[in-house]
Design brief:
Layout: H1 3-11, H2 13-18, E1 29-31, E2 38-40, E3 64-66, E4 75-77, E5 103-107, E6 110-113, E7 122-124, E8 127-132, H3 144-152, H4 157-178, E9 189-196, E10 205-212, E11 218-225, H5 241-266, H6 279-303, H7 321-340
Parallel strand pairs: 9-11
Antiparallel strand pairs: 1-2, 3-4, 4-5, 5-6, 7-8, 8-9, 10-11
Helix pairs in contact: 1-5
Amino acid sequence: MRIPTLLSILSALIPLALAKQQKAPEPCTIFHPTTNAYYDLNAITAQPLKDHKKAHKDDRTENWHAWGYDYGTNFSLNFCAPVIKPPESAVGIEKDLLKNISAFYEYKGETYSIGQVSTEPVFRGRKLSLNYTSGSPCDEPLTRERRKLKDDDDDDDKDDDDDDDDRKSHKGKDKDKNRHKHDNVRRKSTLISFSCDQNLGTGKAHLSFVGASPDECAYFFEAKSVAACGGVVEAPSGLGAGGVFSVIFIIFLIVYILGGVAYQRTVMHQRGWRQLPNYNVWASIANLLKDLIVILTSSCARVLPRRQGYNHLPPLGRGGRGSRADDENRLIDQLDEEWDD
């Protein structure tokens, strides 16, 4: 293997080591693509009660509402979660999908879904947004002006009732048709744009209805909250400063050893331990360490107390084994004298 090739491969690993290993975003969270700020919209998600209690003190337990003003209806929605109490029925929505509705409105006794739940906020430029899709089927082109004229025309109540019946009948046919051609039907959607508002407390938001498309197929809202201000989060799986330095050092060490061995073996024709780069330097360092160890151990041996051997036995004399033998001889002589008498 050529040394430049080896160095290029290993040096390519350094940017990967320096890159911050962020944890995969949790639902309803996102990192800003340029500033790396962390956004967590779970703080403003309405949560249902658990055992008739809030999971957290600041949790909201009701849907968020937006007034439609001149649109003629109000809207109920939730952020990154289904609405707290799903509607019993919705136009063009199958029964098993009602629990996934995240935004809806009611008009003339009918409930219209304007989007299924989504937990993936996105950045469009500098704007944080959340998009709900797959709502109720879009009606035939019916502008807001035509609907308003129908609601304000008191002289044509009967015609309005007939139109309502015709529209309901038409929607009933659409329901049957949607069962077979669900993918080919244009459906209502919702786009929520978030903006930062430091004046609102944690878990609070101000939701306002911006408008709808002329064909009443797309609905636009603006939500102001402190959750849209961004923050900093520590990624547990990311490498800290010490970890990054360690990775760089290990890569440098590998490059140094492998590159040096390749050079010493191919260019200098060295074998054995002398293939290591700067072998003489490392050998002298090893010898120096060996000498230091010998010096330290000898110094410690002088300080430690020595074991007493036979050289430290008390001398023979008074109080020793010699004096004891003399006492025994004297006692024997005394006994002999008494025996003779």
